[in-house]
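Job type: complex structure
Entries:
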Amino acid sequence: SAVISQKPSRDICQRGTSLTIQCQVDSQVTMMFWYRQQPGQSLTLIATANQGSEATYESGFVIDKFPISRPNLTFSTLTVSNMSPEDSSIYLCSVSDREHFGSGTRLTVV
Amino acid sequence: QKEVEQNSGPLSVPEGAIASLNCTYSDRGSQSFFWYRQYSGKSPELIMSIYSNGDKEDGRFTAQLNKASQYVSLLIRDSQPSDSATYLCAVGGSQGNLIFGKGTKLSVKP
């Protein structure tokens, strides 16, 4: 079973800046997923990251705001760009076994 | 747009009672269904998956699926205070992703 290491675990950022979140999986996986969990809400899929191709974004999420890299089968990054307080959320990565999630990144934008 | 609906609760049950959590989904073609438990500040933890109509039991947990009614439920027998958490119902997407409901907050009172 996959073990996913996600970092940073939390950060407080100034509006207008960017934060890059990293997820490292201990085995090769085809698909990785990035979710956002806004305060008091459930998880919403941001995008699907497939190695060797551009990420596929869900409605309401765009590449300029949430650029994703997937350089190999064990690693992915999500960048939250030009942040505003509305971006304050928990961001989680996951893999296609639907069992394992990263530990989450709690982002606060001030 | 695939949707998953849950009562947000909170659902409060006494210790030792049965907690019943319900979920409906909009996509009749959905094939896989999941229940997660999420403690505050933590990542979701998979409790159970179910793919076929009927009941599936694992310890104190029973998942029930009725595809004709597009309905999934989770029963927790002999509820314990440690079961107090938010329970997320999710439907599997075609790419290995998940579509989550908003979650039901369960409180088990000693």
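Summary: Chain B is about 0% helix and 55% strand. Residues 53 and 66 of chain B are 5 Å apart (CA to CA).
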